[in-house]
Amino acid sequence: MVTRYINAFSVPKSVGAGRVLCHNHVQHTVDIPCGENGFRAWTDTEPPPKFVKCRCGWSGLPHYAHRDHVRRQAGGGDMSNPEQRSEREKRERRIPLHVRIMVIDMLPERERAAEIAKLRAAVAAGEMPARADGRPSRQSGNPAHGARRPEGP
Fold first, then answer.
1. Phi, psi for residue 41 in degrees, rounded to 5
2. Chain segment 31-58, per-residue pLDDT in tens
3. Strand, coil or helix: 113
4. Residue 43, domain extent
């Protein structure tokens, strides 16, 4: 077995003759480049032990991943399928807003603005609560945050 890692910040478009494409267990999208969030890919002469064909759709090429990762992905489905992608998006809406904002802060500037706009629209439409427990944010009634207390007894 001769391992050759895929260059950082790239997604392979082809695999050489006699080589198989493999990737690690890190959660990823269909077009994530190598190196992002710890995602790694490589080619080899044969799949490593316990690696099976992966159907996640990454790179658009046939490839292999560890069988445990493939089993976990089977619950998430094929992200190139629009129906399954919408199901995953529904699950992601359950992630607390403050956690999603922390993740968005790590995105490049051009992607950050689009993601923030999507979150604001989802909160405004009532598709996502402002807090994980569904209650209004603390700022709405806390005088320490500049909000007014209700008057009267």
1. -140, 155
2. 899 998 899 999 999 999 999 999 888 9
3. helix
4. 4-77
